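Exercise (ungraded).
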Amino acid sequence: MAVLQSKHDALQARIAALSFAPQGWLGAARSDALARLTAMGLPGKRDEYWRYTDPTGLNAVEAAPVTLFDPGDEPAPFSGVDRLKIVFVDGVFDASQSDALALEGVQIERTCDAAEADIHWASALYGVLEARGQSPVQRPFAALNSAFADDGLLIRVTQTPSKPISLIYHHKSMTSDVILHHCIKVESGAEVTILENGAAAARFNHVMEIEVADDARFHHIRAQGRAHTRQAVTHLFARIGRNAAFKSFTLTANGRLTRNDAVLELLGADSVAHVAGAALGDGDFHHDDTVFITHAAERCESRQVFKKVLKNGAVGVFQGKILVKQGAQKTDGYQISQALMLDGDSQFLAKPELEIYADDVKCSHGSTSGAIDETALFYLRSRGVPLRQAQSLLVLAFLAEAISEIEDEVISDDIRQRLQSWLARHEH
Amino acid sequence: MLEINNLHVKLEEEDKVILRGVNLKIGAGEVHAIMGPNGSGKSTLSYVLSGRDGYEVTEGSAKLEGQELLEMEPEARAAVGLFLAFQYPVEIPGVGNMTFLRTAVNAQRKARNETEISAGDFLKLVREKAKALQIDAEMLKRPVNVGFSGGEKKRNEILQMAMLEPKMCILDETDSGLDVDAMKLVAEGVNALRGAGRSFLVITHYQRLLDHIKPDFVHIMAAGRIIKTGGPELALEVENNGYADLLAESV
């Protein structure tokens, strides 16, 4: 179906200034993505999955300028973790600040370098998982990303590397408008941890396509940048094989607009897909987690655990779906989304969905929103814990279930530390 | 130690008067018991003293070693040495019992300008105190009171008391929901804390707890006032005859 003329015009304006390189295998993938995008147009408030989140700022021709965030003396995320550091500054790979792209068991290259090859393993991935993820729900910003990404990495994990790969997105320009696209392939039997942190840009469009082969394990922990006025739209697309694991956790503190989509397909039996998030918003903050997990094989387990702490008019959105296909018997699907409202001004909008075509499955979902438990607060204070400390303790307790999804203790402690310091900065 | 003078309290939300002039003086090292029929204001007294929201003091004072409690935040009352063992200890999912205890001990030390206890010393101390109350390592690891039985919750209250070493302990119906063995264990825990000038206010419906925690004074509370004060024999009198005679006498 042709898109409306007005939508068409808006899209042409949006992409007019973006660079499009149609050469080689990557060029073909980009052209396909552009065709998908052109057929869809940009999202509007009337689109089902954009009803709670206004895409205006993401559709705008230029990124709204932002003020840069000063973390003060707080250490950067994952500082205490032994990792391979790869740095991007306003969306451009910076070799001088990065470690050498060499790690045993892993091949890492920039997409722009790989584009010149006649044939490349990533051609089976780039834009391919994104394209799969366009149905049944359209994700125009992901197609835009595949078509126009400025930079990105292709990471192939053949054995289990000794340390995590850490992608660091520095943000230096007040008007940077960045599109990054990464592809990750975890080969059979391998296990890898990918860390991501930083605001990246005034407006950040991020796509990560992940292939988790049979018997492989993929861990992803992300701390999205704290700049108050930044906007971000991110997509994780994953295809998960047999007896494999995909685990992703995202910490979001601040940001005027954050839309995080995760589109996960469990294609082999006995696999797990966990996606979790902790979001903290104070004031002009809109945070949207949109998750779509497809169970297409037997005996898979999926978990969606999303917790949001909101105050001063912050808005949290959760749209989570579990689709159990015919034949995906013994599926175990769990979904929880909860908001802790620290005052009466904030808003939480949740839309849990289950669509099940198998008859021997277990799926549960729950969604709650509420204030801090006054009885628990009094109990703590009666034991001598000062009010603010008691509140922080209860907020961390509220977030605990999401944080516990992180397997590595050093990393989960780091995340907990960041939550604590955010709470100290935003005292109630 | 604790001196309550002419305390009048009403519920904040509704215009309901609960305490109508309570007078009570507890000396250092003394154990006082308050008994009384349901709705007489016993639990309200304990909540007002510890600083819970929802009550309005319309008249009177409550001083701990000369310091006015009623103007302090709950955490400040704890820091000066007041402790309330809850009738219904609160479950706090996500907060480990150990973390909770250590946070509380250190918060009080900090408020009193004392140095924080080291992780090693704390662990040693908590293990020793927990052992006496038959609280195992597993219970210490679990979130505060979550999945604890009634008896475990009450023992956990006494453990907190032992760790915090308050000067003035209020036990609000600590015997409710306990079987005989659990009650003995809790009473032993309390008795172990007696002495060193520590005072207790034991709120209970039944005399049986007072067989284990022997009070120096027994007060009968009715309709928001203390209507009679005596020795341990007063508790026996209530046990045998109920409150009817005492209530009739006081009118």
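Further reading is listed at the end of the chapter. For now, observe: The radius of gyration of chain B is 18 Å. Chain B is about 40% helix and 30% strand.
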